[in-house]
Design brief:
GO terms for molecular function: methyltransferase activity. Keywords: Methyltransferase, Transferase. This protein has 16 helices and 20 strands. It has 517 residues and is an alpha/beta fold. It has 2 domains: 228 residues, Vaccinia Virus protein VP39 (Rossmann fold, 3-Layer(aba) Sandwich), CATH 3.40.50.150; 226 residues, 3-Layer(aba) Sandwich (Rossmann fold), CATH 3.40.50.150. It has a 7-stranded mixed β-sheet with strand order 4-3-5-6-10-9-11. Helix 8 packs antiparallel against helix 10.
Length: 517
């Protein structure tokens, strides 16, 4: 519970989840990020309706004023009666507090172009806006304009949605993403920027030299207070730590995106599929990778932006192609990874068979653990089917793989279908069934048929929201005397160690037999 609302002084709040699956997917939010964004946007003062972000904005304004009382009561007096205020887009609770001042002017975006304000220099004492910058094509230009119209000693205060563990990325070239209601998509709701921890660089670009950050319940409530360029430079963070537990939400599927991998340089940021890094990812420029990845996109009829995940899968398959044995994928769905592998290896020339297993109807409820059932896996499975991510028949998969001869599609639930895998040796095994018991059953059943050095790829071993799969696999591989390499992509990797030669075998034993003869 909040100590007090900085707008009205109230101490009771209401809470609601406001994010919807499509937006979570488009922004690739982790469960933790979903939690604090829902808290930011969905937690409101019961008395005045101000959200957490609005409370942070009010605190920023009050800090500039040098006031400690709630904003509503401060503005009810005469001291600030002559304040000239520009409200650029409205903020519940804050806007209503200022609305009675004679010098208050509401200038809603997009009717007012914040990138080119038709307002004279030095007009306002205070300019504020809340969660508006992400909708503006050139946010730095908008900030410059807001600073330009400030009087000496004036202040610009604002909030913007920030994912604190990332760097800012533009949505240029990506499918449109909107804020607001999930079923309305007006042009003023379209998102041009997804802000990260480097949002302060926009302020520097706009010429700001005095920046104050106000915090209410980090990382949910952040607000910036910025002086006109030329005023005394400071940088100050004022935080009011307010405990507010954030419940984890289940991970959402990545959004359908149709763009092909862009050329990357060593300085480019990789930021997708819950992995953010500046480490080299020029593999995305490799022609063979691009062809294979494009074939995976064709199979799925969408691009889930799994480049690094697929890169790991292609490396594993290429390594396995040097070993004896067939390939097996348990959990093929639309065939993104397996299609990419078959394209990369020119599959029919390998002389191998690729066994492709799936229910082609989501997770079989007979084969889930009690822990997964309690965690809501069936509801998640239902939503995933409804979203179209899971196939509900094998027809599309059969059509997708028709160009290759050497494959066998096996329809049904693991472990029931494992005996249809006729491979005597297996060089590559991919396991991606989003459920612990069938995944463990597949590894246990096929372990003895894995070639020495065979590669086992666990798609969701370390991925957030799949804890039971990790625990089950850890217990399973312990029996085989091996471990799983946890990867930052969320995958797990196992290399089957060579079998120990039995007594009486190997080159030394053969030499001894020769000498005895």
């Amino acid at each position: 519970m909040l100590i007090s609302c900085s707008v009205c002084g109230g101490s009771d709040v209401t809470k609601a989840d406001v994010l919807w699956p499509e937006l979570v997917a488009a922004w690739e939010l982790s469960p933790h990020e979903v939690g604090y964004v829902n808290h930011q946007q969905g937690t409101k003062c019961r008395d005045c309706g101000t959200q957490i972000r609005g409370m942070a904005l009010a605190r920023a304004i009050l800090a500039w004023m040098g006031e400690t009382a709630p904003l509503r009561s401060v503005l009810a007096g005469e001291r600030w009666r002559d304040l000239r205020v520009a409200d650029m887009n409205g903020c519940a609770g804050v806007s209503e507090s200022f609305a009675g001042l004679p010098g208050y002017q509401r200038a809603d975006f997009p009717d007012f172009d914040m990138q080119n304000l038709s307002i004279a220099d030095g007009t306002f004492d205070l300019v504020f806006h809340s969660d508006t910058l992400e909708h503006i094509p050139d946010p730095a230009a908008a900030l410059r304009e807001c600073l330009r119209v400030l009087k000496p000693g004036g202040r610009m205060c604002f909030t913007a949605p920030v994912i604190v563990g990332r760097l800012t990325r533009r949505r240029d070239g990506l499918p449109p993403s909107y804020h607001g209601s999930p079923d309305t998509q007006p042009e003023d709701y379209i998102v041009h920027s997804e802000f990260g921890a480097d949002i302060w660089t926009l302020l520097a670009e706009a010429g700001a030299t005095s920046i104050q950050l106000e915090v209410v319940d980090y990382p949910s409530g952040l607000a910036w207070s910025v002086a006109r360029p030329g005023d005394a430079p400071i940088f100050q963070v004022i935080a009011e730590p307010v405990p507010c537990p954030i419940e984890e939400a289940p991970p959402m599927s990545a959004p359908p995106i149709s763009d092909e991998p862009a050329e990357v340089s060593p300085l480019d940021l990789y930021d997708q599929d819950a992995l953010t890094t500046r480490h080299n990812h020029e593999f995305m420029n490799d022609p063979a990778f691009r062809r294979a990845y494009a074939r995976g996109v064709k199979a799925a009829e969408t691009d889930y932006r799994w480049h690094w995940r697929v890169h790991v899968g292609l490396w594993a398959a290429h390594t396995a192609s040097k070993l004896p044995g067939d390939f097996v994928e348990c959990g093929v769905n639309k065939g993104f990874l397996s299609s990419a592998i078959m394209e990369l290896l020119d599959w029919d020339r390998t002389g191998r068979t690729f066994y492709l297993l799936d229910t082609f109807n989501g997770i079989d409820p007979r084969y889930i653990s009690d822990e997964e059932r309690a965690e809501g896996i069936l509801d998640k499975n239902k939503k995933t089917i409804e979203s179209g991510f899971y196939l509900t028949s094998a027809e599309a998969a059969i059509a997708n793989f028709a160009e290759w001869k050497n494959h066998k599609i096996i329809v049904g639930a693991v472990p029931e279908t494992l005996d249809q895998i006729k491979a005597r040796q297996i060089a590559f095994l991919s396991i991606d069934m989003n459920c612990m018991p069938p995944e463990v059953a597949a590894l246990e059943y096929l372990w003895d048929r894995l070639s020495d050095g065979a590669v086992v790829l666990l798609d969701d071993y370390a991925y957030v929201g799949y804890r039971q799969q990790k625990l089950g696999m850890d217990a399973c591989v312990k029996k085989f005397g091996v471990g799983v390499l946890s990867l930052p992509t969320g995958q797990g990797l196992i290399i089957k160690p060579p079998r120990r030669p039995s007594a009486g075998s190997g080159p030394l034993a053969a030499l001894k037999r020769l000498l005895r003869a």
